[in-house]
Design a protein that fits this description.
Length: about 50
Protein backbone atom coordinates (compact mmCIF):
# COMPACT_ATOMS: atom_id res chain seq x y z
CA UNK A 1 0.00 0.00 0.00
CA UNK A 2 1.28 3.42 -0.98
CA UNK A 3 -0.61 6.55 0.06
CA UNK A 4 0.40 9.75 -1.70
CA UNK A 5 -0.39 12.85 0.29
CA UNK A 6 -2.34 15.78 -1.04
CA UNK A 7 0.60 18.06 -0.26
CA UNK A 8 2.52 16.39 -3.08
CA UNK A 9 -0.39 15.65 -5.39
CA UNK A 10 -2.15 19.03 -5.21
CA UNK A 11 0.91 21.28 -5.31
CA UNK A 12 1.64 22.21 -8.91
CA UNK A 13 5.39 22.57 -8.34
CA UNK A 14 5.51 19.02 -6.93
CA UNK A 15 3.59 17.40 -9.78
CA UNK A 16 6.82 15.95 -11.29
CA UNK A 17 7.57 14.35 -7.91
CA UNK A 18 4.07 12.86 -7.79
CA UNK A 19 4.61 11.38 -11.25
CA UNK A 20 7.95 9.91 -10.16
CA UNK A 21 6.33 8.35 -7.10
CA UNK A 22 3.66 6.70 -9.25
CA UNK A 23 6.23 5.49 -11.80
CA UNK A 24 8.58 4.10 -9.15
CA UNK A 25 5.72 2.41 -7.33
CA UNK A 26 4.59 0.69 -10.54
CA UNK A 27 8.15 -0.35 -11.38
CA UNK A 28 9.28 -1.62 -7.96
CA UNK A 29 6.00 -2.72 -6.39
CA UNK A 30 3.54 -3.33 -9.24
CA UNK A 31 1.23 -5.25 -6.91
CA UNK A 32 0.98 -2.35 -4.44
CA UNK A 33 -2.31 -0.52 -4.17
CA UNK A 34 -1.99 3.22 -4.71
CA UNK A 35 -4.21 5.60 -2.74
CA UNK A 36 -4.36 9.38 -2.52
CA UNK A 37 -5.56 11.33 0.46
CA UNK A 38 -6.94 14.84 0.43
CA UNK A 39 -5.35 15.95 3.70
CA UNK A 40 -3.95 14.85 7.02
CA UNK A 41 -7.27 13.72 8.37
CA UNK A 42 -8.25 11.14 5.76
CA UNK A 43 -5.11 9.05 5.26
CA UNK A 44 -6.65 6.00 6.92
CA UNK A 45 -9.82 6.36 4.85
CA UNK A 46 -7.76 6.62 1.65
CA UNK A 47 -5.92 3.42 2.52
CA UNK A 48 -9.15 1.64 3.48
CA UNK A 49 -10.65 2.46 0.06
CA UNK A 50 -7.88 0.47 -1.60
CA UNK A 51 -7.76 -2.49 0.76
Amino acid sequence: MVVVGAGIRKTEQLLPLFEQIVDLTRRHAPQAALACNSGLTDTVEAAERRL
